[in-house]
Amino acid sequence: MSKSSTKTRNQSQSRPALRVGRQLAYVEVASSELTRDINRDLILEHIRAHQPVSRVELARISGLQPSTVSSIVEQLKEERWVKEGATIKTARGRRPTQLTLNDELLMLVADVRPHHAVLAVVDLNGHFLSRRLVPLPSDVKKGCEVIADGMAKLRDEHPGKIFEGVGLSVPGRVDPGTNRLVLVPNLQWKGYDVSGDIGKRLGLKVELENDANACLLSELWFGHIDGLRNVVLIAISEGIGAAILAEGKLIGGGNGLAGEFGHICIDAHGPKCGCGKNGCWEMFASSQAAVRYYTELRPKEPKPTMTELISKAMNKDEAAVAALTRQSEEIGKGLRMVTASLAPEAVLFAGDITTFWDLSGPIIERECKRGLLTDGSGPRLLSIGDGELALLRGAAAVVLQRHSGYYRSAHARPRTA
């Protein structure tokens, strides 16, 4: 499984330096521990992709020695990530047992929005076993209480199951060193120990991650972008978030702030953004922008929710169609800076925008292509389907990514069963 946690400054300084011209380039030294970690992730991914699968098949698929595969499998079994099932009949020798991901191991996850949170129970295969929506108060402490209470009720619905941890997909940026929000314009949670609060209430380790990063991790784990090494994921709901996969590595940047394209100013005279600045891209291309466009066209009508606006558009309401069309045009225009700076092979879209992709997709592609620097066809633009489910699976993928490897994140704590 791909690792997204960034290296600390001390770790970077301890690497040997390779002089390239006048610059010093730091290179990673391959240790036996790092090799073991990579092999472990490889085996876990192959089990996920090929289950049920035997140790013999894993050795053939991975190219690793049978003894190495067996050692890793035993560790994964001991930690409850995988389990053994039926045996296979063979012409001779021992009957190999089949390995699968452990469907008894579950995760509590949440897609957190400014006014509500969607909670769910997810297994290692990304299957949803329970789900509920809870309204969120503006006070962060009360919000944590509401989320924890809702998750406790979901956990009670699955007696006898093992819960590995909690994953929260949040509309902001998370410092990988502290597991706290450092930038969250649309939610008043900055600096509060959300993970510590909810973790204490549930007795489980809690992981926070930016919603776009979480979605991209989900796509990596569940195999939807196999073979692609340069991808940008854009999550569009109340705000705009982005995640970057460059040369096969998820880019976090300093303090986890990489990918904040939504807060790049595109019109200094535009509306004031939640970040305090004027004219940010998300003020023209987010769901709240689409709702604003509609109210400008129909000022005497009640302000709709985004779901209501999409429903109106599906029923051929001209103002609703015009509002979503304008939003899609602004997304495409802003996407030009993303493609010019990163040159991705594909751009994935998550969040509210996916629910009216038949309308928005062609408009976004048209506007994006107008800004291409070359005569090429540009990146593929892909909707990853149900935005809500993608965000919840993303929260689950964060728990998987941070809990299943040898190298724990800087804020790792012992697991509570």
From TrEMBL:
Pfam families for this protein: HTH_24 (PF13412), ROK (PF00480)
Segments forming a coiled coil: none
Gene3D superfamilies: 3.30.420.40, Winged helix-like DNA-binding domain superfamily/Winged helix DNA-binding domain
SUPFAM superfamilies attached to this UniProt entry: Actin-like ATPase domain (SSF53067), Winged helix' DNA-binding domain (SSF46785)
Annotated family: Belongs to the ROK (NagC/XylR) family.
Stored PANTHER family: ROK (REPRESSOR, ORF, KINASE) FAMILY (PTHR18964), TRANSCRIPTIONAL REGULATOR, XYLR-RELATED (PTHR18964:SF110)
Name of protein: ROK family transcriptional regulator
